[in-house]
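To assess whether the prediction recovers the assembly geometry, we first specified each molecular entity separately, as shown.
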Amino acid sequence: MTVTETVKGAVEILQGFRVTLTNLFRGQITSQYPEEPAPVYPRFRARHELRRYENGLERCIGCMLCEAACPTGAIHVEAAENDPANPVSPGERYASVWEVNLMRCVYCGDCETACPVEAVVLGHEFETAVYTRDGFLWTKEQLLAPTNPNVVVRAE
Amino acid sequence: MDWISLILIPGITSLVLVVILLTGFAYLTLFERKMIGRFQLRIGPNRAWKFGLGHPIADALKMIFKEEFIPARADKLLYVIAPALAIAPALIAFAVVPVGPTLNLFGRQIPLQVADVNIGFLWVLAAASIGIYGVILGGYASNNKYSVLGALRTSAQMLSYELPMGILLIALILTTTLGTADGFGTLSLKEIVAMNRPWWLWLWIWLAFPFYFITMLAETTRKPFDFPETENELVSGFATEYGSIKFALFYMTEYLHILGASAVAVSVFFGGWRGPFVEQIPILGVFYFVAKVMVMVFLFIWVSASVPRPRYDQLLRFCWTILFPIALVYLAITAVIVTLA
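The predicted structure of the complete assembly is given in tokenized form:
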């Protein structure tokens, strides 16, 4: 090892020190996630949501196309006839059971595409962690409930 | 000397020092994690309590309540006493470091130093050398090849780097002959801190600091010279088989070595507790000392955030072909300067 190489190496190490020191004063680029919402893109696909019409009727007509389209078999739908005097949905039938197993779901969005009445959408609520396996089975009542996801939608 | 100044005052000062060091160690880990986080554009730990101040306490509790585990076929006695052998010299080295000037309390002279040993330098070097035993015995007693390799590396590294460190210290001791009245110099850290030397000599002393700092990094087995651990090649080196409070003791040892090396370097190179207005308000000296040590600790962390670990042969080659000749040349020039001055 020659003297010039040694001096060169020492200078390079000092340059490294300068880089780290400038980074020390740059401030953080991380976000405080649970307190600060995590920004997502508008087309981000998180867990399913079932929607209603403005008059309160459920959009889902129990056609089971989402169940057929689901590549992992995560969705389970059972249909029932609407009572004409007190309808649940505007069509002839409605979904008496609409369940999705989020442990199987791959969030591909095929159910969204298959749905003829835009009843099922993949929303922005991705904080679905629970402590039990049963907690991943979301039923119709939970999916219909209004959501308030802890997210900021960022510009695409 | 009555028994109060012979036993009671050193006893109390050493007790206070140990308590401060052991809690200071805990918050040193937090300081390091915070600073490393800042270097990496993160914030570092901030979950437990305000600014993450609860993290060291949580870590300590976790360490104490973890399962004690002794590997089968390990040398049980050595395995258990090795952490204690590692941490005791790290604490002992502090005994000779003057933390501040002598205080006048309750009508007594209270030196802010546990023991003013007149061979303070040798005491520090001896304590540092004995500290290797804990690491070597721990690695040997674990009955694990990674541990043994880590321990062997430690011994080679520390023995090699003690040479340039010792020679640089000899050169610095030579400069003390210009500061004492009889011209014989001194080995006592207390006198070295208190003595006055010409300003041009300080410039020459500070020239040695970068090289001394490199030997310090190697002696404390800190990054980038953390060869006893090298988690990517030796899993965790000598500490592989250690868990629970025994591992915590090794962990403490590393940080106490940082504090100890910083304290000695501050005393030798940067005037220890000296600073403006210390003559009027002696307690200020303690703050100056702590501030200087913190700057040194920051240097340690800055290095660990900046420099990658070299290869093992590079480490030894750097010591023997670069650092050692530089130290010898420095010693020779210092001897000439001291003789002429």
